[in-house]
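step=predict obj=PucR family transcriptional regulator n=407
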Amino acid sequence: MTASGGLPDILTAQCPRVATAIREALHGHPAYQPIRRAAGPMFGGRRETCARLLGLVLRGDPLPADDWDRFRDLGVLAARQAIPLPVLSEAWDLALTAAARTCWVIAPPGRFAEMAELTAHAARLAVGAREACIQGYAEAPRAGARSRPLRRLLAETLIDGAPAGAIAEAAGVRLAPSYLVLRCEAPALTAASHWERESDRLESWDGVLYSGDLGGLIVLFPAAEPLRAEDRSAEFTAGLAARTRGPVRAAESYRRGVANIPAALEEASRVLTIVKAIPDAEDRPYRADELLVELAILGQPGIRGRLAAVLSPLDAGTDLRRTLEVLLACNLDRERAARELWIHRRTLHYRLDRIRDLSGVDPSSARGIQLFRAALTSARLAGDRVPRGERDGHRAEDASLPPPLSA
């Protein structure tokens, strides 16, 4: 390493300052107290640990085998304390950033080349220490229920975009070349028995990984054959829908390659937001290419404002918005919509005429119903008058009416 002419002595003398910066960066983080208990005594104490690692950086030494084992033990402790891997990874990055920033502030002017060299070596050490930590995290659940914790851990690792090879090996799972990402919510299935049954279904499929529960579930279906993965996703969602009267909202996304799982999850999450706002959403997985109009609306505040203006005249009437929502949910079947609203068909016709007169848009026309559907979806995306029953996990028509005749 380049001779630093006193730079190691300067940084070593300020080691307590570096340790304090790390503590302040992590203070308030959800993983701070568990990590403090686990990592504090790694090398004798918080400051001793900081001095040990800073010394490795300054000497240019590789990570010794004993230190590798210590970081592996840290991963085991984190797993046993139920710290989610993404949370642990975030805390790790915060600590490294705080240490590097403080050292750069401490370094005298004109030492840029030497500090750059030290920072590069610190990054290499950090990669090795992180790998050891993840290996320990992956191996920890072997002492208990092996399959379920490891599958969940592997799913969370892939979702986070972190290296997953060691965890896959520990879980006995062979990673697929690509995965279809399903995000779904079935909030009405709240009993523990429901989740036990569905998690057993997921584990019966080879290579399927998952994280979360029925209130907010992420499933990774191996997609060496994308069409087969789509069938599995649809089958799982249909099974949920068959067991509940409440809504099952789902969205899926496929991107080639394991590295694109985070991007696929981001797209599926965006689509799910829209699915939950569509009045006539079906209990099946939706894809982004099915909702291009709604996605465009989501990114255009000006259009959303104009759509809100289409609905605002309906507030002069009674249950007019709700009438449109139920009509759409019934696939424009007026007989069924009247039954679901618990009104006579003539009353439904009167309400639709009233909607036309107030808004100037005819809900009986193809253009009119399409416009109202877009306006209602936009309003729900904005949180405007989302039916209380749907916020609580039930269908809109269940919120304030007696059970529909179709039940």
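step=describe
The domain at 147-294 is CATH 3.30.70 (Alpha-Beta Plaits).
step=end
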